[in-house]
Specification:
The complex is a heterodimer of chains A (70) and B (510). Chain A is 0% helix and 54% strand. With 70 residues, chain A is mainly β. Classes of the chains: A mainly beta (70), B alpha/beta (510).
């Protein structure tokens, strides 16, 4: 199982995918809010989403796991 | 001597073959070309104009040209010096004569004021020669001293086709750019075997010093090439944006309409917090097919690259709102610094496309030195004396305004688009900073209306028409005429003559 991690500190605004969805590299998978901006987080992997590890409103740090992809 | 005429012909043929066939076969297995074939692809008509030192170590049959091919060729008719390591000879290691040849090539580039290409595929210094090679005044480190002396005088382009380890790892570092072939190129100070012996770390070559790692993580690499042919094509594309030396300017090309006709105003949301793709903006602005991005895979929240506007070369520094909100971090600050320095060195006008809420904040970036890295970027922008235009695409807050060549930084024009917003910080953050206590003391139901009222007043204060009225920006330009305005301005700015300061060297933040 591989992981998509946050590339910066921020608050989870919205998860754009759900378990079972196929994702490709560079696809937006989650929206963060940070520095007063809405920031899309792109997938670094291609695969199928298995688990979402965060909820809307959660604070995440750079490197925190957002979701697991197979 | 009798027979020398025949001997000469035979020697030339022998030397040009390089090392033993088994080493050529090994290269072919790794999809690597012979060094002389790389030069054929790089140079016009596949031709070396002249080669120096071909007969180095000719009395040792195992060392044809001592594993280094050096001389001059032409690219698009322009003379360039080159030094190419030959990995079929002692794994491309640098011997005493080969190093001498490299140094003489650098001296020639300095005296003739011509660019120099380093084609690297080397095991590093030839350890059997190290006593004659490493430490003296006239070899070894002199290669790097010369690179620093050449830096900013003539373009120095490093192409890594294979290893560039240990001492040789500094060649791409001192060059202006490093193009690395994925899967074959590598650079590291100590090999994985040495790391295991000295620090007990177990790591693969690719993890420690592979091309992809250097192009995405360390920032040593500027371009990740899919193949040797791709690497050479990239080198030539980059070279077309370079003059021969710092006294010249890049040649113009035929003007071409932008590659995308999607209107700029459809690309940029008015809401400051919504992301958009700066690549779409660039594609609708610059000449079609002209954009050559540098360090694309490293710190992608800042986009740096060459492009053309009406055929004229410009260097673009642009925030990318889709990645980390376009906020500047330590790596993106370094990336911007390096690119601004290249453009300033070689007379390439700068175009800043700003949509930035500032530098990143927080303890992690403070501990990583965000202040001094950001200061380094701002220092580079300050001292750049080429024509500089800042287009405020959307927000440009705080020190982001400084890094993106705001009005106080010797900028020739600060052009606002109708969506521009310049302030020390955005309305929400500003009201929170000034009125937090006051808001907290209000009854709950009054807080939001008060906040909104104060944010609206602040927004009026930083309205772009007000700033233009105060001459903070030089003009507000409609989206539709931005390209024409930039073409007109750069055409007039080309005679700009400016110096920054007279001193031995500034004490730049690093």
């Amino acid at each position: 199982m591989k992981k998509i991690v946050s590339n910066m500190a921020g608050v989870v605004l919205e998860c754009l995918v759900k378990p079972g969805d196929k994702v490709s590299v560079d696809q937006d998978v989650l929206m963060l809010e940070s520095m007063k901006m809405q920031i899309p987080v792109q997938s670094t992997l291609a695969g199928v989403v298995r688990t979402i590890k965060v909820n809307e409103g959660d604070f995440v740090d750079e490197g925190d796991v957002l979701m697991e992809v197979e | 001597m009798p027979g020398n005429v025949e001997k000469l012909a035979a020697e030339i043929e022998r030397i040009k073959k390089g090392g033993a066939e088994k080493y050529h076969a090994r290269n072919r297995e790794q999809k690597k070309l012979f060094a002389r074939d790389r030069l054929k692809l790089l140079l016009d008509d596949g031709k070396i104009e002249f080669e120096d030192g071909m007969f180095a170590e000719c009395q040792n049959p195992e060392l044809p040209a001592d594993g280094m091919i050096s001389g001059v060729g032409r690219i698009d008719g322009r003379p360039v010096a080159f030094g190419a390591s030959d990995s079929t000879v002692k794994a491309g290691s640098a011997g005493e004569k080969g190093s001498q040849k490299g140094l003489r090539g650098q001296e020639m580039a300095m005296q003739l004021h011509i660019p120099i290409f380093y084609l690297i595929d080397s095991a590093g210094a030839r350890i059997t020669d190290q006593a004659r090679l490493f430490a003296g005044r006239s070899l070894g480190g002199r290669v790097f001293y010369n690179q620093v002396k050449l830096s900013g005088v003539v373009p120095q382009i490093a192409i890594l086709f294979g290893p560039s380890p240990a001492g040789a790892a500094y060649v791409p570092a001192f060059a202006d750019i490093a193009i690395m072939v994925e899967g074959n190129a590598s650079a590291y100070l100590g090999s994985p075997r040495m790391a295991e012996m000295v620090t007990h770390e177990k790591v693969t070559l690719e993890e420690m010093g592979g091309a992809r790692m250097h192009c995405t993580v360390s920032g040593l690499g500027d371009f990740l090439a899919e193949s040797e042919e791709d690497a050479i094509r990239i080198a030539k594309d980059y070279f077309r944006y370079m003059p021969q030396n710092y006294l010249g300017k890049p040649a113009d090309a035929e003007p071409v309409s932008p590659g995308s006709c999607r209107p700029l105003k459809d690309i940029v949301p008015e809401a400051q917090h919504k992301p958009f793709n700066m690549y779409d903006f660039i594609n609708s602005l610059v000449d079609g097919g002209s954009f050559l991005e540098i360090k694309k895979l490293f710190a992608p929240e800042l986009i740096t690259g060459f492009a053309r506007l009406g055929g004229r070369a410009v260097g673009i520094v642009a925030n990318q709102p889709r990645v980390k909100g376009g906020v500047l971090f330590t790596d993106s600050s370094d990336k911007g610094t390096r690119f601004v320095n290249i453009c300033n060195a070689f007379n390439i006008p700068l175009l800043f496309l700003a949509d930035i809420s500032g530098f990143m904040i927080g303890s992690a970036v403070e501990r990583a030195g965000i202040i001094r890295h950001g200061a380094k970027f701002i220092a580079a922008v300050s001292q750049a004396v080429v024509p500089k235009i800042c287009v405020v695409v959307r927000k440009c807050y705080g020190a982001g305004l400084y890094a993106m060549a705001g009005p106080a930084f010797g900028t020739d024009a600060v052009i606002a688009l109708p969506t521009a917003q310049i302030a020390v910080m955005g309305p929400e953050a500003a009201i929170n900073a000034v009125f937090a206590n006051q808001i907290a003391e209000l009854p709950e139901e009054q807080r939001e209306p008060f906040r909104k009222m104060m944010e609206a007043r602040y927004a009026e204060d930083i309205d772009i028409f007000r700033l233009a009225s105060e001459l903070i920006v030089d003009t507000i330009t409609p989206f539709e005429t931005l390209r024409d305005e930039l073409i007109a301005r750069y055409s007039i700015y080309q005679t700009k003559q400016a110096r920054f300061s007279e001193c031995r060297n500034p004490i730049y933040p690093v």
